[in-house]
Amino acid sequence: MNKRLVGMFTLSHKVAAYIPATINVNEEIDNTPYVEEMASIMSKEFGGATSTPANGFWMSESMGLIKEKTTIVFAYAESIENLDPIVDYLLKLKEELNQEAMAIEIDGKMYFLK
User: Fold this and answer.
1) What is the pLDDT of residues 2-60, one digit of tens each?
2) Which of 23, 58, 77, 100 could form an S-S bond across to 46 if both were Cys, CB 3.0 to 4.6 Å?
3) 76 conformational bin, left if phi > 0, alpha if psi -120 to 50, beta if neither
4) What is the domain partition of the chain in residue ranges?
């Protein structure tokens, strides 16, 4: 480790929410308002957030292979004891966007909210 980093403040947890850019499984939408809301929630909980675009592929139970644009909103945190606001918002989006599942990654482990 670089000696200049010894004793520095660290954030040892990472939480990432995957925000789809589709509704009804495969109809494209502008996900900007949802990304901004998730970034706001994470910033309130963890002090900040970052987003990055990605292409996601997954096997739909009803439609086969789906390719979609998605945005990953993530934050690093000292503590992840209160994930309720993030999970609650993802579950709300699941219903609003008519998704089969929503994804959240916590410390490198992926969870699917069905």
Assistant:
1) 999 898 888 999 999 999 999 998 899 999 999 999 999 999 999 999 999 999 998 88
2) 77
3) beta
4) 13-113
Q: Are 44 and 110 in contact (CB under 8 A)?
A: no
Query: Can you count the helices (H) and strands (E) in the chain?
Result: 2, 7
Exposed, middle or buried, 16 (CB in 10 Å: 0-12/13-18/19+)?
Answer: buried
* CATH, domain 13-113, list 3.30.70, 2.60.120, 3.40.50, 3.90.930: 3.30.70
Q: What predicted TM-score, i.e. pTM, was given to this entire model? A: 0.92
pLDDT, one tens digit per residue, over 102-111 is 999 999 999 9
H or E element: which one contains 34?
helix 32-46
